[in-house]
UniProtKB/TrEMBL annotation:
Biological process annotations from GO: intracellular protein transmembrane transport; protein targeting; protein transport by the Sec complex
Annotated TM spans: 20-38, 68-95, 116-132, 152-172, 184-203, 215-239, 271-291, 311-333, 368-390, 396-416
SUPFAM superfamilies: Preprotein translocase SecY subunit
Protein name as it appears in the record: Protein translocase subunit SecY
PANTHER family from the UniProt entry: SECY/SEC61-ALPHA FAMILY MEMBER
UniProt xrefs under PROSITE patterns: SECY_1 (PS00755), SECY_2 (PS00756)
Pfam families (UniProt xref): SecY
Recorded GO CC terms: plasma membrane
């Protein structure tokens, strides 16, 4: 009843209804483009050949783009070049004074950073598009001929189309963020992941019906999946609240302050970004190695970076822990929080304002980030363990845990919270059970 009432409330708000419909329309355009094949490619040959890559890094890349890679679609690169460019810009912000200066210049600096990110997206898309064209042109990559007429003209055409399509997808994401609901880039990634879920679920059900898996074991697996989803939700929303006391101030006949507020610090402050960052970096070796399909040495290195290898799992987990700390340091600055509290007359009980407050917040942030980062890494590499020790199909294992589940839960909760805020602004009950209580407070 509460869900249906919340949906009816959405329909009562014209602006929110238009934003949701606009978002759905642009996501439909993205899904439509993922079914348009690159000119000069035999789509049926690619589809049959990429089934053998369902459990490697190409299969994971195909998961993020909603099957566009398996269909040799014009959207084969998806939004991943933009994510890679964002990673590079943020890394430069930590070591380059010029980028650091832009980050502190407000809206003008943000626009320049966005512009540099777009330029970087084009450069990375050109490189990855070239790698895709080389892979498609090489029969050894797929075990059969997928491009009947390879050559210079096909390479140039494929690179131009794939790069332009990536820029178009980036534009769609920015439109969704500006005029729709939710973060457009994240929603594009999420919709690409969810597009593969029905087929993976059917494949898992068929394995049970054909007798290759016991149905009792499948029930246990599904129960474990529900538990993991609950753990991911808890990891996403769990916070550590630091009490802040404000001194009373008398201005004229009014008394200000004197109450107790809280600084909410999430256990997973970085959200899903460490997963996306680490995954984008892990895509780079396979892109580079795709230029050497005939080299045995390069293929041995590629085997080490296979999605189901232990080396990949360990490196991926360590990168997630690193990027969790890195992005947390960018998203939450204890020094700025301490300075703001001092200017507003606030203090943490038992802690001196200024440097001591900064160190206190930084210590708490460091302690709660470590278990959050480890939990994030364990959940991210869980599909590797499932495919190794449990009889779970590779496609379904990606939804059982790992990057897919983390992205879907994080983006879903973020979008739901934005819808919730629109409802609460107009005094409607949202989807959360405590929405009315929060509104009253």
């Amino acid at each position: 009843m509460k869900l249906t009432e919340s949906i009816r409330n959405i329909n009562k708000i014209p602006e929110l209804r238009q934003r949701i419909l606009y978002t759905l329309l642009l996501l439909f355009v993205y899904r439509l483009g993922s079914h348009i094949t690159i000119p000069g490619v035999d789509a049926s040959a690619v589809a049959s050949a990429t089934t053998s890559h369902s459990n490697d890094l190409f299969g994971l890349f195909d998961l993020f783009v909603g099957g566009a890679f398996a269909r040799a679609s014009i959207f084969s690169l998806g939004i991943m070049p933009y994510i890679s460019a964002s990673i590079i810009i943020q890394l430069l912000g930590a070591v380059t004074p010029y980028v650091q200066k832009l980050q502190k210049e407000g809206e003008e600096g943000r626009q320049k950073i966005n512009q540099y990110t777009r330029y970087g997206t084009i450069l990375i898309a050109l490189l990855q598009a070239w790698g895709v064209s080389v892979n498609l042109s090489s029969p050894s990559s797929f075990g059969k001929v997928v491009v009947p007429d390879p050559g210079f003209f096909f390479t140039i055409t494929a690179v131009i189309i794939l790069t332009a399509s990536t820029v178009f997808v980036m534009w769609l994401g920015e439109l969704i963020t500006e005029r729709g609901i939710g973060n457009g880039i994240s929603l594009i990634i999420m919709i690409g992941i969810l597009a593969r879920f029905p087929a993976s679920l059917v494949a898992e059900a068929q394995s049970v019906s054909f007798g290759s898996k016991n149905w009792i074991v499948e029930i246990v697996i599904m129960a474990l999946m529900v538990a993991i989803v609950a753990i991911v939700v808890i990891l996403t929303v769990a916070t550590r609240r630091i009490p802040v006391q404000h001194a009373k101030r008398v201005v004229g006949r009014k008394v200000y302050g004197g109450g107790t507020q809280y600084i909410p610090i999430k256990i997973n402050t970085a959200g899903v970004m460490p997963i996306i960052f680490a995954q984008s970096i892990m895509f780079l070796p396979s892109t580079f190695l795709s230029f050497f399909p005939e080299s045995e040495a390069m293929q041995k290195v590629a085997a080490a970076f296979a999605y189901d290898s232990w080396f990949y799992a360990v490196v991926f987990g360590l990168m997630i822990v690193f990027f969790t700390y890195f992005y947390t340091a960018i998203a939450f600055n204890p020094k700025e929080v301490a300075d703001t509290m001092r200017r507003q007359g606030g203090f943490i009980p038992g802690v001196r304002p200024g440097k001591n407050t900064e160190e206190f917040i930084d210590n708490i942030l460091t302690r709660i980030t470590l278990p959050g980062a480890i939990a994030l890494a364990v959940i991210a590499i869980l599909p590797t363990f499932l495919t190794k020790f449990v009889n779970v199909t590779p496609g379904f294992a990606n939804f059982f845990g790992g990057t897919s589940l983390l992205i879907v839960v994080s983006v879903g909760l973020d979008t739901l919270q934005q819808v919730e805020s629109h409802l609460m602004m107009r005094h409607y009950d949202g989807f959360m059970k405590t929405a009315k209580a929060r509104g009253r407070r």
